[in-house]
């Protein structure tokens, strides 16, 4: 019997693995001993550098103290590019490394996952592995993923996201690859390493968590084992993101958001995502803007777009967002979820439209500074018809789109994209 024949009567869903994890204040002290236990001898540290903090220095020195040889690749870019992955592969091969430690947010972890996949296939270009479970060889180098942000969840997920700059330099393509072989060996989520994260970046990453929590809760996949994590992660974001952003040395906020990151990623790992992520990937592809920032701008619009097919689920999310829904109809409660998301976005100071993002206003903004001619020219987000069309086309080709709660066509998604660029959030509040 063919698989698709089996799927009709028995809609089989798949649970994807998580790595072992160390969580909580002080967990980073265990990186050296854990690396030794895993048999690391010469490890490649992959990071963006985290300049302005001493985290990379502290961890590399600790690894050396435990007797490891350390090689550092610290040029991972935000929205990691294919050449970041391939440069790291080359460095790994040149130094005959046997393992990886990634330190940072999603970019460092994702580039590292890509490098491991490439190395398992004799250094083949990472862009060959776009899609689902493309690894032919499941064995790749061991990897400790150390988080310094609370957003990505890449330390525990089977996803990695890469920008392909090779196919058409004037039309970059950002894709998400899902691969069980990419899962790290050990995840480390230590809120102490998150204290140095700036306010704006904390806020933006927090909305990545909210997207990871809410998209599987309403996704077509309807993966029941994800629902508890999705709801609880939403509650943690609502309770802790403001504190994490505005009181950065308060452990409760930092720790709450790190747990939210961890369990939200476990929700989407098997529960799927939706077009918050597809819009975010598309805008990053063309403007190199930050993933969490893009998610934050897209989230209220996509929640409003999806409401008619999932009122009950959005009413549940409203409750988790802290709305007192007693006395409300399900539809009123679902509407209140959108209002609560907009309130949170405004409370943590996130710009409300893509056209509000300027070259010099946000710490992770690389408008006009990117490494290729394309990015150098993309210094202003125009939000014109051309922008909206190409982003909409990119959205429809994204691996996250089929999971979206509501069916997506060019005609239905284009107005959502247009609103992300040019619309007023107050339009969404009844
Ligand atoms: Fe994400």
Q: What string, H for helix and E for strand, traces the elements in order?
A: HEHEHEHEHEEEEHHHHHHHHHH
Q: Would you state the CATH class of the largest domain?
A: Mainly Alpha
Number of strands: 8
Number of domain units? 2
The third-level CATH topology of the largest domain is Dehydroquinate synthase-like, alpha domain
Distance between the termini: 51 Å
Explain the overall architecture.
It catalyses: methanol + A = formaldehyde + AH2. With 430 residues, this protein is α/β, with parallel strands linked by helices. It folds into 2 domains: 3-194, Rossmann fold (3-Layer(aba) Sandwich), CATH 3.40.50; 199-428, Dehydroquinate synthase-like, alpha domain (Up-down Bundle). The chain is built from 15 helices and 8 strands. It has helices spanning 3-7, 31-37, 55-65, 82-94, 106-119, 199-218, 227-246, 251-271, 275-287, 291-306, 311-320, 330-347, 373-377, 385-396, 410-422; strands spanning 20-23, 42-47, 69-73, 99-104, 143-147, 159-164, 173-178, 186-189. It has a 6-stranded parallel sheet with strand order 1-8-5-4-2-3, sandwiched between helices. A two-stranded antiparallel ribbon has the order 6-7. The radius of gyration is 20 Å and the shape is globular. The N and C termini lie far apart (51 Å). The model has no long low-confidence stretch (mean pLDDT 93). Bound molecules: fe (ii) ion. Residues 208, 211-212, 277, 291 line the site of fe (ii) ion.
Structure summary:
Helices cover 46% and strands 10% of the residues. It contains 15 helices and eight strands. The chain has helices spanning 3-7, 31-37, 55-65, 82-94, 106-119, 199-218, 227-246, 251-271, 275-287, 291-306, 311-320, 330-347, 373-377, 385-396, 410-422; strands spanning 20-23, 42-47, 69-73, 99-104, 143-147, 159-164, 173-178, 186-189.
């Amino acid at each position: 019997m063919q698989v698709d024949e089996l799927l009709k009567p028995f809609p089989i869903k798949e649970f994807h693995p998580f790595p072992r994890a160390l969580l909580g204040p002080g967990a980073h002290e265990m990186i050296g001993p854990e690396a030794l236990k895993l048999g690391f001898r010469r490890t490649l540290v992959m990071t963006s550098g985290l300049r302005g903090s001493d985290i990379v220095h502290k961890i590399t020195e600790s690894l050396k103290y435990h007797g490891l040889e350390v090689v550092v690749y610290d040029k991972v870019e935000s929205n990691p590019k294919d050449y970041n992955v391939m440069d790291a592969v080359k460095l790994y091969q040149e130094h005959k490394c046997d393992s990886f430690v990634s330190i940072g947010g999603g970019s460092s972890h994702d580039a590292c996952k890509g490098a491991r996949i490439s190395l398992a296939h004799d250094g083949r270009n990472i862009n060959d592995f776009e899609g689902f479970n493309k690894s032919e060889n499941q064995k790749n180098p061991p990897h400790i993923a150390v988080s310094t942000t609370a957003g990505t969840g890449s330390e525990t997920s089977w996803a990695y996201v890469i920008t392909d700059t090779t196919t058409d330099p004037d039309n970059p393509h950002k894709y998400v690859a899902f691969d069980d072989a990419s899962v790290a060996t050990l995840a480390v989520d230590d809120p102490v390493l998150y204290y140095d994260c700036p306010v704006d970046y904390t806020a933006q990453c927090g909305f990545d968590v909210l997207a990871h929590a809410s998209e599987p809760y309403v996704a077509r996949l309807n993966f029941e084992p994800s629902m508890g994590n999705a709801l609880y992660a939403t509650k943690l974001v609502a309770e802790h993101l403001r504190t994490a952003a505005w009181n950065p040395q308060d452990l409760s906020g930092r720790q709450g958001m790190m747990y939210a990151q961890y369990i939200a990623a476990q929700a989407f790992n098997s529960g799927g995502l939706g077009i918050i992520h597809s819009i975010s990937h598309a805008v990053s592809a063309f403007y190199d803007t930050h993933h969490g920032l893009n998610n934050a701008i897209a989230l209220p619009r996509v929640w409003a777009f999806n409401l008619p097919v999932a009122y009950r689920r959005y009413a549940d999310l409203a409750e988790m967002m802290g709305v007192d829904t007693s006395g409300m109809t399900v539809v009123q409660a679902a509407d209140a979820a959108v209002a609560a998301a907009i309130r949170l976005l405004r409370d943590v100071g996130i710009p409300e439209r893509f056209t509000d993002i300027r070259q010099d206003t946000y710490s992770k903004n690389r408008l006009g500074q990117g490494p290729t001619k394309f990015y150098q020219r993309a210094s202003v987000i125009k939000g014109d018809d051309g922008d909206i069309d190409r982003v909409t086309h990119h959205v429809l080709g994204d691996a996250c789109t089929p999971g979206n709660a509501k069916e997506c066509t060019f005609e239905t998604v284009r107005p959502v994209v247009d609103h992300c660029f040019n619309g007023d959030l107050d339009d969404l509040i009844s």
